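User: My instructor asked us to take a sequence, write out its structure as tokens, and then describe one feature of it. I'm not sure where to start. Here is the sequence I was given:
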Amino acid sequence: MTRPLSLLLGSVVFLTTLTAAQAQELNLYSSRHYDTDERLYSDFTAATGITINRIEGNADELIARMQAEGANSPADVFLTVDTVRLARAAEMGLLQPVESDVLETRIPSYLQDDSNQWFAFSQRARILFYDKTDVANPPQTYQDLAKPEYAGQICIRSATNVYTQNFTAALIAHLGVDAVQDWANAVVENFARAPQGGDTDQLRGIASGECDIAMSNTYYFARILRQGDDQITPDQLANIGWVFPNQNDIGAHMNVSGGGVAAHAPNRENAIAFLEYLTSDQAQQYFSAGNDEYPAVPGVGLAPSVAALGIFRPDAIDLSDIAENVGAAVEVLNTAGWE
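Assistant: Let's start with the prediction itself. The structure tokens for your sequence are:
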């Protein structure tokens, strides 16, 4: 016995045929840890009758678990918050190609894996923040971070952080390994402190006066704009300016959150339906309103906290190009002594 599944995606309706046995559950392995995602899951269940069983944890731990489970893995969908882990899961044979007109139509091609094993569903711009009282001429490009005038001013995350690796890999794709090696060497010389903490810690470093310039994903700052931070006063927040870098050439680097269907998914049709649901206008708006991210689907409205950051040109590099250069990025960072 089968029944049709119909979900509204803005002006797009997709139909998937599910067997009665398959129509009841979905096993989701996710490293997304945001409370606001609860609405994504509950609305999907309400629309489809499919119960989502969640296994949440560190992305590397989930990948290791899927590998250990092998063909007996119950995982249907793997979700994570960076290109590195998505590419790693695909390379390890833990994901499978998906043919979906909805995913192909809704998600821009540069936000898809070349072999359709994973897709991006939300984005965060990785931009530069600065102390408006201390920095008269803030850097306008990522390359500017290497300038001697910013010596002792930069707070940034460690070389082991996936955001740092993704960003460096994108630079390599644009500029080449040699140029990025020179850049990384010079940036290390400009550190205000050894790399430490998360993105919010970099913003707090500006507020405390420990550094004058920092790199962070936009959604951390937008979240502070929306709900405040117990270590940043309103006056300190008002004194933090921001720059969307490289607006005259490559554009601002974008990190993504995305997912794919597990290689041995026992509920494959449900898994595809869930990924398609994540492209709906409703789900895309949740990514922005609930977690201060940029939608992956063009034309979906932004939350006020995100829109307040302004219009900018994003880097439209193919995510597969970033994934291919992650190994080189790690080597560049290590060679530069980027801790």
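For the description part of your assignment, you could build on this observation: The radius of gyration is 20 Å. Try explaining in your own words what that tells you about the chain.
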